[in-house]
């Protein structure tokens, strides 16, 4: 399966610069989480990636070629504003959308049934979409993005408003699709979920991509924190160590922040000198912490 590449994409709405030279790629088989504050430019990027909105400059490529009408029919899209036909029944809607994307009537029926059952919609299959709860409408929307077996998946906040069970179903489906080689791009404000689920993450701020990589890559340069447990240590044992700041100190658990040049093995030696060390581990900053640092002072 091919990669989806967004290259140097810029977009203005009147005077407002919504995107300013955004570039990243979603590799075949990867789950890519797209995060940023409200108004940072996620929806605009995704709509341009799909070809439903034109960029002012830059381009989007799939499998090394520009997006065409033909490639676009192989994209699966879950728009933020949802966009289902409210009065159509769930089953009919999915069959209709599958046929619109080129499936035969028979294949469209089969695929609609498969996704209805996979997404727990069987009891609702003959209901009008407008009569479903919002969470169930979202499941139908996911089914609509998947029913034609897309080669690329782009989902705008697919997890918003879902209950925990639905979050698990959505996560499993996205993972499965990625495992078949499909590039999957989705936006979310649920950073713990993005951190858990995604292979790589892009952080957009004020229309510019300010960080991109795996969580490990993104947090590699961050100030190292250490958790050290020396139950018999005398209080304040770490206070005098050069380049080390004590974040918190409880009897059995001291949290330290190390300046980048400090060798953690020296800290370990100092800890051992004061008593038996029961725990010694580096603490990685969470995506939420990283996000706060990266977007701090975001332009309005
Ligand atoms: N049709 C439009 N006309 C004018 N400005 C727009 C339009 N669509 C988006 N914008 C502006 O472009 C910027 C980027 O918006 P976009 O919807 O892409 O952000 P977002 O990251 O998806 O935000 P959210 O997390 O709130 O969904 C915002 O400042 C927004 O107000």
UniProtKB/TrEMBL annotation:
Pfam families: ABC_tran, DrrA1-3_C
Highest taxon, organism lineage: Bacteria
Keyword hit for Nucleotide-binding: yes
GO molecular function annotation: ATP binding; ATP hydrolysis activity
Swiss-Prot/TrEMBL keywords: ATP-binding, Nucleotide-binding, Transport
Transmembrane segments: none
InterPro entries per record: AAA+_ATPase (IPR003593), ABC_transporter-like_ATP-bd (IPR003439), ABC_transporter-like_CS (IPR017871), DrrA1/2-like_C (IPR025302), P-loop_NTPase (IPR027417)
Segments forming domain ABC transporter: 4-231
UniProt similarity note: Belongs to the ABC transporter superfamily.
Protein name, UniProt field: ABC transporter ATP-binding protein
